[in-house]
Design brief:
By secondary structure, the chain is an alpha/beta fold. 38% of the residues lie in helices and 25% in strands. Helix 1 packs across helix 10 and helix 3 runs parallel beside helix 5. Bound molecules: iron/sulfur cluster.
Amino acid sequence: MLTSVYVHFPWCLKKCPYCDFNSYGTARQDVPHAAYADAVLRELEFRSETLAERTLVSVFFGGGTPSLWDPEQLGRVLSAVTSAFGTVSPSLEVTVECNPTSLDRARAAALREAGVNRLSVGVQSLDETRLRFLGRLHDAPLALEALRAARAELPRVSADFMFGMPGQKAPDFVSELERVLETGVDHVSAYALTVESGTQFGELHRKGRLPLATDDDYAETFLAARRCLASHGMRHYEVSNHARPGEEARHNLHYWRGGDYLGLGAGAVGCLADPATLGASRWRSESHPAHYLERSGTKAVQAWTEALSPEDRVREALMLGLRTLEGVSLSRVAQQTGVTLTRGREQALARRTARGEVLLDGDVLRVLPEHWLALDAIVTDLF
Ligand code: SF4
């Protein structure tokens, strides 16, 4: 069974005002590098029962800011993860999310030596005003320097961007993308700024004090980014992701195809299929680092679990797969869940197909990219 591993690192140098990830601002010297690695290894041991029968296809260190983690400790976790699996794919992808404030050439080299082969750098913007709006600690020159350092040491580098900020027009965003492409990155993620409750931005929005982009600016920027990146040889292979052919994030493709994944670390989510019921079980570990450190390696680390029915898995396959250029394979969904995806959805499919939004092409159901801006409504209709 092909399986991915996600390792969560919960600390950042500062909490960004828009961020609702499980991350905690902390001083660099206060990160418990070795103790956290020990805790993750205890959790790995606790969850290792079926790993000998599985094939590891990707490992993703996300956060938080995992580039803050001492590469030696991150490497210790990576090596234990690969050893725990019966088989490791020869094309194993190992990605680390990085912030420009914790990535220089020496750190990139140390991560490569630890077994990492892909870096995803949180650039977010190359406009100083917007970087300040987002509360980021880096400026544009540092972001570009981090990308060049990453490219000098690792074969595969992604730049993460945000758009949909007040006053941001499509040509502004395109010129930022053009500058980042000069560094030679092979992958760009472009996420729309979303306002989440429980964040500083959420509070400002509630009080009517957070300016945001208009819907028209958002749509124009989304489309202009696609045209710009396509003209540089990148395929828009998922709503928020663009890559040179062959450089797509294998870890994310595995999620979107409904693959099994093991989550390790504070607040990490995992989901493994149950071959007996064709459902799946999903869990999340304790989110707060102090609780995680205390409870890891025991059942008490599990803060939450849920059982997914085969039909729940079909809805997830639609929700995730229709965001991708490759679409949803009906035969794969049937094999994973025992459910015929089209059954019970005939009317919605006919409606959306007649409008030219959805295409059923042999075994594959997909939303054509020109309709991705209306994706939420289409997926809701097919639910
Ligand atoms: S650096 Fe990333 S994970 Fe950390 S607070 Fe900012 S957005 Fe959240």
